[in-house]
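Lab notebook, bench 4. Continuing the backlog of folding jobs that were queued last week. Each job is logged with the same field layout so the records can be merged later without manual cleanup. Today's entry covers Acetate--CoA ligase family protein, a 697-residue chain. Filled in by technician R.K.

JOB TYPE: sequence-to-structure
TARGET: Acetate--CoA ligase family protein
LENGTH: 697
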Amino acid sequence: MTVVRDLSALFDPKSVAVVGASDDPAKYGHAVAAQALRAPDRRPVHLVNRRGGTVLGRPAATSLAAIGEPVELVVVSVPGPGFEAAVDDALACGARAIVGITAGFAETGESGRARQQAVAERVRAAGAVLVGPNCLGIADNTTELYLASDRFAPGGIALLSQSGNLALELQLRCAPHGLGFSRFVSLGNQADVTLVDLVADAARHEATRTIAVYAEDFGDGRAFAEAAADADKPVVLLTAGRGSASARSAQSHTGALTTSADVVAAACRDAGVELVATPREMAVVLAALNGTRPRAGRRAAVCTDGGGHGAIAADAAEAAGLAVPELSAAAQQRLRESLWEQSAVGNPVDLAGMGEQNPHSYGDTVTALLGLDEIDSVLLTGYFGGYSAATGGLGGPAAETSAAGGGNALAAGELATAQRIAAHRAKTAKPLVVQSMFPQSPSCRTLVEAGVPVFAATEDATRALAALTVAEGRQAPGVGPLPPPARPLRDFGYHGIRGLLGAAGVPFPEAREVTDEAGLPAAADAFPGPYVLKALHLLHKSDAGGVVLGLPDRDALLAAHREMHARLGARSYSVEAMADLRDGVELIVGVNRDPRFGPVAMVGLGGVLTEALHDVAFALAPVPAARAEALLTGLRTSALLTGVRGRPAVDVAAAAAVIERLTAFAAAHPEIAEIEVNPLLVRPDGALALDARAVPA
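JOB STATUS: finished
OUTPUT FIELD FOLLOWS
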């Protein structure tokens, strides 16, 4: 459970002071002071400039002490060398919150990091909170607190951003959708108040409906995921640097296959966070969610008044992960009762020009589709909005009938239809999204004002619909707690790890370690053949010829050892009982410890082709068995698990149980950097780990 800090002094202080306020427009202290003075009646606003005089036409105090009364929130925008002294003055005058605009700290290197840490410790020791340093300020429209350089239109989005320019772009992109902001926080260096603190606070902020985050540095990424999962509000994340692989040299398949992008995507999936790649996509998803949680069900109906738009939209919907199923015979008959003969009713549903004769047909069809039990959402695409655009001076094409007054009638009918759709949308929880050639038309603006997202681009509309829906049966978002640390491992050898995993409930075949030829007879007598011989301390044993399978007896085992040892000269070998590989599927299960998100599990198709096939899925560890099953059934090659071309289905539940035990073991051992079982043989009658490897941190 996320610990929620008291940030009331940060967002609704009793008084504010801007240290470094200036009349010079080139200085940030000028912009912040000007914004702070937008609401002088809400709370006292003090301007501080060491030269005194006036700033922005108001008397400026030469110091915080000269104000002569306590100040609850202090903005510090002074040159770097004076920052510590300004913070000390703020704490001395009773400040409970400080916003550090000043730069030149952790972002400059180790000496700056040390200065930053010392300041943060002083602030925390005084019982205060610090945003920044190296931030661009904060704003809260709900409390009339304006301490950033720019204005943010009021609304329901809490925007937490490490980039000021991206925040401004998001505001511009959100405006056409009627979206605004409850608050804005520039994260800065997060010396004290972190992204996690701000997400947790925004989650309980009544005026915030959706939380939007742009972050390059998550700090404690797992804590961020936990806070986002705990928030009963949509969280949308835009981040950078996801494409780079881990800088640490990987020493296992798991480490080699795990990238930053995989880790962030897994954390978002587990936490229920919508991950986006661009500011445009973020605005699209924010417009779609707008304070609502996605509904279960991926079956979408596409409605259009032109076959081309319908076909393109159907393709885009499926590419976005939605299904566009053919409607049942009963549903098609119901639609035919209100449409004309040439209309297509299979899905996509094409009015085939009927909208030009009767714009109410749009409303009739959308209403009917939203009422179908076999459909979870509706996408209206194409010309809708064009009739009101033609008569609304928005550049739409004039209707052919306009000379006779028909254009005005079509526009009025379309506007009435938009009002009807909006009214019906308020009565159903099913998502409705519109793509229009004329998104700024009066009809479309009517829909936007009613909370129906409208987009100009088909790909935006389908992305929005995907954000509003989730697959049936998907588990509720959640990030499980890390188990308490277990006693640290000392033996990272093959048989040591094998034994510990076996004690944790991961099944292995019988095995004995031998260091020379003399030990082979005793190993062979410990269990019946056939045998497997492995050369230990090799990463890719099979590629190096360090694994021989199916040795029928002691003589074959001895011969294989002599040949292998002459070629590889390994320090030790493992003699193991040969598993029955018939009807089995080889999986890989591993855990890689990420510096930001902690233990991250990977499952996928295993064996010698693991890296070549790259059919893997990720989740934050530990992974419960139910989540593990979902990961396995979501693989591209999952048909291999359920039976294909006459092969029987394998025991997925047994594999999921092994995943749960292995990931719990790894999560309890922070001294493990990488651990994996590869392959994990899954047969119709259970699962058996055939090889294991661990790498110390």
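OBSERVATION: The first strand starts at residue 16 and ends at 19.
SIGNED: R.K.
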